[in-house]
Task: structure prediction
Amino acid sequence: MSVTQQSATERVTADRGRFVARGVSTPKLVVAQAQGARVTDVEGRSFIDFAGGIGCQNTGHGFAPVVAAIHEQADRFLHQCFMVGTYESYVEVCRRLAELSPCAGTDQRSVLVNSGAEGIENAVKIARVATGRPAVVVFDNAFHGRTLLTMTMTSKVKPYKAGFGPFAPEVYRTPAPYPYRGISSTQAIAALEHLFKGDVDPESVACVVLEPVQGEGGFVVMPPDFPARLHELCAKHGILSVDDEVQSGVGRTGKVWAIEHYDGVQPDLLVSGKSLGGGLPLAGVTGRAEVMDAVPPGGLGGTFGGNPLSCAAALAVLDAVAQPEFLAAATALGETLRPRLDAIAAHHASIGEVRGIGPMLAFEFADRTPERAAAVVSAAFDNGLLLLACGIYGNVIRLLPPLTIADTDLDEGMAILEKALASSA
Ligand SMILES: Cc1ncc(COP(=O)(O)O)c(C=O)c1O
Result:
């Protein structure tokens, strides 16, 4: 009798199918370990990582200062709940966020939570209390999370919204600039003014939430003039501007926050997340004291928000990312990648645009269907590269390698990407 030997990948994947809800989509990869820009699967195959667990590894897998900080904290205590016992690392993360904050005002404060979605939820809560207004304005192509409010704020029906309604009230959507698809800053501002005439009284809007580089929506970069024009319009109506830097922040664009690329723009609230925790769950909302402290004691918080391990990791991340050398290396990575992507695009007529800021780069297929990008991602995987598609049409390939990636890994990853593009043409 012959016994078919199951591989470790097949075994874990089969068990996953048996025990894990299928709504959490299933990748091909079963991970054994990860270091730097490389992930090794349970078969011993090594992959170059251009995904970073969706943008959470700006400092690379197993970043030594992060691992050391987690070990050190694990030996002292794992959990207290910040509402039960104050611990210094939480306070220190807030101090670092204050020092690094791009927000308006000198006296900056933060609250720490578990995820980007929770950060956005809290930013809206804070903005509502601070202004006494209910409404929220968001943009086409936005992604702000998967909770009821943030899913409502997100701009992609399948798979994020279909069937999950009714949605949260008082969320209004308006076009974002998208120069490649013919939407300019001027048109987007005109559309928002129209929204204020036709759908929602601007005097009842608490906040406008903007990703300076839209992440899941396709790495759509806001034009240089847009955030300032938006901010001016918001200020005219007493609307707070929320800067969602969950994906674009923590060095991803070559500055600590992407909004720093836009001269003179100071948001009212910043939401950070993903790479902030170096691989552990952590997100934050930061803003000036009079806005943050509009919420009375007990109005913000949560059991695990800003847990000690995540805070220890975040301090190591922020120490590294705030270094000019780290940001210079990230910028240099972007300067290396950009011409390579432009050269690839020159050989593939199917690629309509290469875009991004610094090393936060992507290319969009002109055809607004998901099949080509999915084929590239799949071929890349088969050849040893972890890659992610994005965009509400699923037709954008984004690059999220660790910003610390070694030249050899980068070269190998780019070679696999080229091969995957050629084989899927
Ligand atoms: C810009 C942006 N905001 C919010 C979120 C939600 O973050 P999380 O998945 O940690 O809830 C994401 C996640 O991809 C994001 O990219």
